[in-house]
Amino acid sequence: MSGSxxxxxGHEVVDGKIIHNDQAMSWEEADKRAGFRLDRRKSWAxxxxxxxxxxxxxxxxxxxxxxxxxxxxxxxxxxxxVGAGCHECGYTGKSRETCFVPFCRPERIRKAWRATFADDFxxxxxxxxxxxxxxxRYQKFLSADCDAVxxxxxxxxxxxxxxxxxxxxxxxxxxxxxEAKSVLNHTLINKRFYTATDDKAICSLVQAGLLENxxxxxxxxESYFVLTDAGHTAAVSLRPIYPAYPEYRA
Length: 250
Ligand SMILES: [Zn+2]
What we know:
Elements: E1 4-14, E2 17-24, H1 27-34, E3 43-49, E4 55-67, E5 94-102, E6 107-110, E7 112-117, E8 126-129, H2 133-143, E9 154-158, E10 164-167, H3 171-174, H4 178-190, E11 193-196, H5 200-207, E12 211-213, E13 222-227, H6 229-238
Parallel strand pairs: 1-3
Antiparallel strand pairs: 1-2, 3-4, 4-5, 6-10, 7-8, 7-9, 11-13, 12-13
Helix pairs in contact: 4-6
Bound molecules: zinc ion.
């Protein structure tokens, strides 16, 4: 199934039915607004969130099956999964529904810890990123420039307000081949990537909306390429959560 993306600008009520004012958007515009590359196979919408100053919120279409409203037993306190069957549902007792729900992008959390020395009652301590309390304590132990410091004298507490949220790898990024992933990583680190404009890996990344040709090069047929916003998100999603502990992926 091929997807679509719309911007919902409002709605009107016609004959007691809600008619949404939806405007088609280009994928490029939608990617820019979302900050990452939207999955082209899904249906998306930007819908103003009335709880958040009416700022359009990214929603994805979900579909589900429920009991047909024409033949469901409405006497029951608990709605049943299937109705008795009627002409409305073609005697299946079920109907297929779709609706837009706010999209929750999968993310990874880089945990923050506050490390203090047990005899320091006033200091606020030091913020450390680590996957576990013991690793945070060990990091503090290594950075202490005093021989008298013992492992047991370091107190470590979680500081969730200081956590850093990183994007998780999405289906499109995961499907890239190793060469393309490596190009993304190098472009993230060096801020740009210089190569031939007909390079196969580069062309596929440009087509995917993850890289952009700056049009500047030293020779004809060569150019500097930079990450788009979507490409930046994709590249960050491929990095380990803790550079010091690459084995922690989630
Ligand atoms: Zn029915």
